[in-house]
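Protocol step 4 of 6: structure prediction from sequence.
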Amino acid sequence: MRIVIAEDDPLLREGLALLLRAEGLDVVATAGTADGILDAIDEHKPDVAILDVRMPPTHTDEGIVAAVEARRRRPDLAVLVLSAYVEQSFATDLLVGGVTGLGYLLKERVGRVEEFLDALRRVADGGTAIDPDVVAQLFTRSRDDTRLERLSPRERDVLALMAEGLGNSAIAERLFVTDGAVHKHIRSIFAKLDLSPTDQMDRRVAAVLRYLDDVRRRT
């Protein structure tokens, strides 16, 4: 696994690099700016990019902008974004492009090494790793919202695999059904969750966030 890291704090940047190298992972480049990490991505063609949200020069959204641009340049690039706080608007911007190979974690998770490494590997494998606190901010539902209970067991299986970042063909292969059957299940999921085609957020992303929020509440 080839990794690039963008973090303006040199201690955290080097600490992450040391941690990952100690795990036998290949950190091919580090950078302290968003422009620097985009150059590194173009040069080294990594499998995963780990980016801080707030970076120079303004320390606002440079990391998110870089993440979105990196995914535009290389749609197959897995991206794990780290943030000191839950920043709802930034996370929404990132999720618009879909959830495959995408993670958004609070920096405090880095200190929980196994949890952090598990999230990194999941994202690298094309899955999703969204911090529970981020999910809670992105999608808040009332206690009596029972829309997920409308789903059939098979629809819930499909939604769980969507949350892992699988596309329709991969879901069909995993469940031993046709692509057409998966498409019908997903349409039914959108209908039962009251997700309209005119919703601002991508319906697939919104459905996955509902699922992750439900898992968070149950654990």
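Step 5 (inspection) to follow. The mean pLDDT is 85.
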